[in-house]
Design a protein that fits this description.
The complex is a heterodimer of chains A (about 110) and B (about 120).
Chain A lengths: L4 E3 L2 E4 L5 E6 L6 E7 L5 E8 L2 E5 L7 E4 L6 E5 L8 E8 L8 E2 L3 E5 L1
Chain B lengths: L2 E4 L3 E5 L4 E3 L1 E4 L4 E8 L5 E7 L5 E3 L5 E5 L4 E6 L8 E9 L8 E3 L3 E6 L1
Parallel strand pairs in B: 2-12
Antiparallel strand pairs in B: 1-4, 3-9, 5-6, 5-10, 7-8, 8-9, 10-11, 10-12
The chains are: A mainly beta (about 110), B mainly beta (about 120).
């Protein structure tokens, strides 16, 4: 069964540094998402992406964050000038030809900011 | 604004016993509802979904859930659990209308622990 893959599984970064989290969505999916889960808290929506542009973003997704689909397969989340509070598990998800179809999640990247 | 509340943060149960994990939601528009399961060190795996039609939906691993619009609930059930069902379970909501482009709203999760 096709799956969403995320790399790296764990990223440790110094505060203030930039980090790029990578995702390969399922190949025929058109909708892409990033979520995050701070330890002990709910899974939170960050951003949705369709047709090479952001469809919706949460209030968390400020100018520090950006997303990109640099080629036909990768979907990246960039965090500029990381803060301690960015430490979380980041999940990538994708869904098929409709935004209402179930989203398939990757295993996540655990981001630790020191 | 929409919200999802999972009423139990932890549910311990013995193997082969039945289990119900409770989920209530709030939304001003029609909704789609999902249950996801997360095993340790893994991502979120879709367990089942309610989009429309029959209010009783069946998912993988013998789980089922019932959509109750009047109670605004979507409780997850399994008649007989196994040790391997030990995991964290998340209820999630997607607005069926409006301008939300696929944003899932999650509950806080319920940790199901199955004891031998």
């Amino acid at each position: 069964e096709p799956e969403v893959t995320q790399t790296p599984s764990h990223q440790v970064t110094q505060m203030g540094q930039e980090v790029i989290l990578r995702c390969v969505p399922i190949s025929n999916h058109l909708y892409f998402y990033w979520y995050r889960q701070i330890l002990g808290q709910k899974v939170e929506f960050l951003v949705s992406f369709y047709n090479n542009e952001i469809s919706e973003k949460s209030e968390i997704f400020d100018d520090q964050f950006s997303v990109e689909r640099p080629d036909g397969s990768n979907f990246t989340l960039k965090i500029r000038s990381t803060k301690l509070e960015d430490s979380a598990m980041y999940f990538c998800a994708s869904s098929g030809t409709s935004r209402n179809q179930p989203q398939h999640f990757g295993d996540g990247t655990r981001l630790s900011i020191l | 604004a929409q919200s999802v509340t999972q009423l139990d943060s932890q549910v311990p149960v013995f193997e082969e016993a039945p289990v119900e994990l409770r989920c209530n939601y709030s939304s001003s528009v029609s909704v789609y509802l999902f249950w996801y399961v997360q095993y340790p060190n893994q991502g979120l795996q879709l367990l089942l979904k309610y989009l429309s039609g029959s209010t009783l939906v069946k998912g993988i691993n013998g789980f089922e859930a019932e959509f109750n619009k009047s109670q605004t609930s979507f409780h997850l059930r399994k008649p007989s659990v196994h040790i391997s069902d030990t995991a964290e379970y998340f209820c999630a909501l997607l607005n069926a209308g409006g301008t939300s482009y696929g944003k899932l709203t999650f509950g806080q999760g319920t940790i199901l622990t199955v004891h031998p």
